[in-house]
């Protein structure tokens, strides 16, 4: 299964329908005084929609990616108009100023940090628009936060939710290539120290609210960090030789898509498909390739019918579907 124009248009319509929808809204906002009690649009004039800040950021990544891949689709002009109205210097200055607040040190760390870098990386590919240049100061601010944070992070955070370190570093490393070699080196060193010695995975995933596989997202990060000849045997020792992928890596069941936490499990199916497809490109063994491709297809097939339907999933799932569908490109 791959991305088609029909799917792209459907995803674009979904994201256009919520990136400017202010409510319901789950703020990540620490109040230091009465004056800090403000509306989402006032606090975040660019990223006030999509239920929460990080979902709005990666929904914009979705829209810009679709605009680049299908510039002639009918929705591309709507994306253009809304992006031009959203990514103004004045609005982005407010987003940048928010980071300088006393209580914003941990704001969206690290999930939103990684997605903002991914958004800037995508925006910079649209050379016919000023979006990349305007987003760059905000991206540089988050990149600096990664560089300051990783030396302090003694242990990786391996939950399957927003705190996961490896997921954010996959996005940050893609942004840093060709832009920030110092950050890329920090990420490489930290990731090797955190994960290179890991073998024989036997974690208890899935948890009931995960949208990331702790082991597969760590492996995807290591596929970017390790030399190709070293990664394949490391991955084999981690999850293939012990039978984990064959035994445990099957699509998960979602019992209630109106529950925001349980709905995360649709995202787990999609993100697993993304990881498996991307990791497969770093392997040469035919049996391992066939196993990963089979599991990726099963996870994608299980999740794709549920990208839209209930707002608890609809405000974010298209981004992870797009990652999975474009993993081979």
Main features:
329 residues; mainly alpha; 2 domains; globular
3D architecture notes:
With 329 residues, this protein is mainly α. The chain has two domains: 1-30 and 40-152, no CATH class; 198-329, no CATH class. It has 16 helices and no strands. Helix 10 packs antiparallel against helix 11. The protein is globular and about 55 Å long. The relative contact order is 0.10. The mean pLDDT is 97.
Overall shape: it is globular
Most strands sheet:
none
- Tally of strands: 0
Count of DSSP helices? 16
Give the SSE string.
HHHHHHHHHHHHHHHH
Structural class category:
mainly alpha
Task: Tell me the layout of helices and strands.
Layout: H1 5-16, H2 40-43, H3 53-69, H4 75-86, H5 89-99, H6 111-123, H7 131-149, H8 165-176, H9 181-195, H10 214-225, H11 228-240, H12 244-248, H13 264-280, H14 286-303, H15 311-314, H16 317-325
Helix pairs in contact: 1-3, 1-4, 3-4, 3-6, 5-7, 6-7, 6-8, 7-9, 8-9, 8-10, 9-10, 10-11, 10-13, 13-14, 13-16
């Amino acid at each position: 299964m791959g991305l088609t124009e029909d799917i792209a248009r459907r995803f674009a319509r979904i994201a256009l329908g919520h990136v400017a929808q202010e409510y319901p809204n789950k703020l990540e906002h620490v109040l230091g005084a009465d004056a800090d009690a403000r509306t989402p649009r006032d606090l975040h004039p660019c990223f006030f929609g999509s239920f929460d800040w990080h979902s709005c950021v990666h929904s914009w990544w979705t829209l810009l990616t679709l605009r680049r891949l299908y510039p002639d689709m009918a929705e591309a002009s709507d994306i253009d108009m809304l992006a031009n109205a959203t990514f103004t210097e004045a609005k982005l200055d407010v987003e940048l100023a928010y980071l300088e607040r006393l209580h914003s040190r941990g704001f969206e760390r690290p999930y939103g940090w990684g997605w903002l870098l991914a958004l800037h990386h995508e925006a910079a590919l649209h050379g016919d628009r000023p979006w990349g240049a305007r987003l760059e100061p905000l991206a540089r601010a988050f990149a600096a936060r990664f560089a300051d944070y990783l030396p302090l992070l003694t242990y990786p955070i391996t939950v399957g939710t927003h705190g996961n370190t490896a997921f954010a570093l996959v996005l940050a490393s893609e942004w840093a290539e060709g832009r920030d070699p110092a950050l890329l080196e920090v990420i490489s060193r930290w990731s090797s120290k955190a994960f290179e010695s890991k073998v024989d995975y036997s974690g208890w995933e899935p948890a009931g609210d995960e949208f990331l596989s702790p082991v597969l997202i760590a492996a995807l990060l290591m596929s970017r960090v390790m030399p190709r000849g070293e990664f394949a045997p490391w991955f084999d020792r981690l999850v293939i030789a012990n039978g984990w992928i064959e035994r445990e890596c099957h699509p998960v069941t979602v019992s209630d898509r109106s529950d925001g936490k349980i709905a995360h499990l649709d995202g787990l199916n999609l993100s697993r498909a993304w990881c498996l497809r991307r990791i497969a490109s770093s392997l040469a063994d035919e049996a391992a390739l066939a196993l990963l491709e089979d599991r990726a297809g099963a996870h994608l097939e299980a999740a794709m019918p549920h990208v839209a339907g209930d707002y608890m999933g609809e405000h974010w799932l298209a981004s992870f579907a797009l990652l999975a569908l474009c993993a081979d490109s």
